[in-house]
Amino acid sequence: MTLLEQPDPINAAERVFRRGDDSAVLRISEADAEMVETVDIDPLSDEPMIVNMGPVHPSTHGVLRLVLEMQGEQVLRSKPVIGYLHTGMEKTGEQLSYLQGGTNVTRMDYASPLFNELVFSLATEELLGIEVPPRAQWIRTMMCELNRISSHMLFQATNGMDVGAVSMMLYGNRLREETLRILEKITGLRMNHNYIRPGGVAVDLHDGWREDIAGLMDLLPPLIDEFDELLTGQPIFRERLQGVGAINAEECLALGVTGPILRGSGYAWDLRRDMPYLNYDELDFDVIVGTYGDCFDRYAVRLNEARESIKIVQQCMEKMPTGDYRLQDKKVTPPPRARIDESMEALIHHFKIFTEGFKVPEGEVYVAVESPRGELGCYMVSDGGAHPYRMHIRAPSFVNLQTMPHMMQDALVADVVAIISSVDPVLGEVDR
Amino acid sequence: MSPEPETAATPAEPATLYGVVISDSPGQVVLHPSVEQYLPTIEAMKADGYVSVIDLCGVDYLTHGGRSLPEGVAPERFEIVVNMIAHTAPRRARLRVQVAESDPTVPTLFDLFPGVEAMEREAFDMFGVVFENHPDPTRILMPPDWDGHPLRKDFGVGSVPVQFKGAAAPR
């Protein structure tokens, strides 16, 4: 599909509804796809051939396996095969208390762990019917936007490397590490922070956090401009991405796709603006949209979203109120460390809350936040006990993966790599 | 725009939307269609501006002490929970479909929202709920030769030896 060729607007989403052999999705079983040795094709013939790409492949971003039906260099149909990283985290979540649950969900989307903790905490708080103090809200907003920057910088690194701009691996990861350094200083860990917890956040911002974050905010914009200069105008980079893997907004909506892929196809939908949570209704930022829905638009959307996040972090720093960083409700909040040394009751309270956990009223709730990959949701069912009865994470990458066969149809093998990269899946979240 | 919930003439009758019993949840309306009402309700909602099925998952209520359901909805072991979103006048709606253990079958939504393909495969994989007429009714997360459905409440934790296909015996 060339860049200016727009899909037929009447049947704009028709191709994603196809069930049969004309569908872009190769609906064969894993076992059939594995029978490579029995495929007896003359290498010089025009017969389509099944090629398994992954699960161990440097550009599949983890353990994604793609079954590709190829004719020569061209992909006819394809199917993403997942589950290689499945560790039953939703089942594990049913065994952990609400305070321990954060350590579990944070390991799902390991490139943006704070969003997972946030959505889990919001669901728990909704069931408990509590509201966290304003300072905790603002800390959460700011930390999530820092995390969004680090996640989008990781995308710049991997996307650049996948299409041959190998120096981006170093440049992008450098900015990611600079951001993670701040997150480490605040939360204690580079990744899998378990920082956002039901009732607030784990610790208050450290002394001198303003200088640290202001330093990062001064460092980032010129370097992001440098990426822009390095990549956006570069003819080889544009050639690899422009017009590759195009998908339109109707197809995205039919497939349930959210996040930069949907926005890249020119549809302005961002939960932060359209269904605000935390403090996003008090913040001023733009929703970045693309036009053609190709790999280049998705790259540009993410690059500019990082710039918007910088704006948001700066506003959070200005508006950061004083006060409690967590709810002072003895039901959900452990006592301060200093009290444990002097009070037997505080010690018992601390012990109880970390061994038994707190009980959450019976009910069920769905909450969603805008993660760097799209809508991240948490559906939680409580039976009145101290563990979630059912904890389901609506992972954006899991749904977004379904666009791949449609994007890849009629593309070349080299484009497959660019398309995987532009979908930006995190397999930990896909397989859970 | 969404039609206002029709308040029934007699207050004893529960409130309905699209002819389906509803209940309230923070920020969204919860519909309780039966398996027969399920597909027509989604069709009506699609015509009414709900553009995407955001999430579809299963829940096994085998060991749950008792959930609150509106009057007229008989609890069954399984529930299929569908989250829909409308973008003009942003709003969400959730459907909770009661699925009996004796006949865990619901129609697929693929022809209305093809994005449910992976989610329905996951619900089948984890709970054993069959989606009729699904284009690719296979397991998605567990290996294809796996026995049982892990998120069912009677599927123990850690009680199953890890199965690896084709792995040689230890000796």
Which features characterize this protein?
A: 432 residues, mainly alpha, Cytochrome-c3 Hydrogenase, chain B, Enolase-like, domain 1, 3-stranded antiparallel sheet, 18 helices, 8 strands, 46% helix, globular, B: 171 residues, alpha/beta, 6-stranded mixed sheet
Oligomer: heterodimer
Number of strands of chain B: 8
SS content category of chain B:
alpha/beta
**What composes the largest sheet of chain A?**
3 strands, antiparallel
Question: What is the C-alpha radius of gyration of chain A, as a whole number of Å?
Answer: 23 Å
Task: Note poorly predicted spans of chain A.
Answer: none
Number of helices of chain A: 18
Mean of residue pLDDT values of chain A: 87
Query: In one word, what is the shape of chain A?
Result: globular
Range of strand content of chain B? 25-35%
Provide the CATH architecture of the domain at 16-132 in chain B.
2-Layer Sandwich
Q: How would you state the average pLDDT of chain B, rounded? A: 82
- C-alpha end-to-end distance of chain B: 67 Å
Highest CATH level, the class of the largest domain in chain A: Mainly Alpha
- Could you please say which CATH topology of the largest domain in chain A applies here? Cytochrome-c3 Hydrogenase, chain B
CATH topology of the domain at 16-132 in chain B: the name is Beta Polymerase, domain 2
Count of DSSP E strands of chain A? Answer: 8
What order do the helices and strands of chain B follow?
EEEHEEEEHE
Strand/helix succession of chain A: HEEEHHHHHEEHHHHHHHHEEEHHHH
Helix content of chain A: 40-55%
